[in-house]
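Researcher: Structure prediction, please.
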Amino acid sequence: MIKPASLKKIGAGYLWRFWFIAILAWALQLFASYALVEWHCTRPRAFDELTLQLLVGILTIVCVVTELGNLFYALGYYRLLKKHNNSHSREIFMAAGAILMSGFLAVAIFVQGWPSLILPACQSAGG
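Model: Predicted structure follows.
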């Protein structure tokens, strides 16, 4: 059961966490998947192609779920702030930006992870 958001916790500083979570999940998926593929292409005997696809797939799914959870919580805070429309314009902007960023980066993570699930890793990496 998810606890409802409280206006006592909400502030611009508190809402920065939604922005940072979105960016960190995207960066983790981007850098870790590229590092795994590059490592696999230089050392092809370390593990097989299916294991690499499984690792990148799990990483992609975890990061997309993180982004969607972040979007869900930011949307909850946005709705709460809009309901109590009393001089929370900065917080409303922060929550709306977090919603847009989380949605966009969820799609970006999915698009980044897709080629390694279809193409052979060293071919999708350009090697």
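Model: The CA atoms of residues 12 and 124 lie 41 Å apart.
Researcher: Thanks, that helps.
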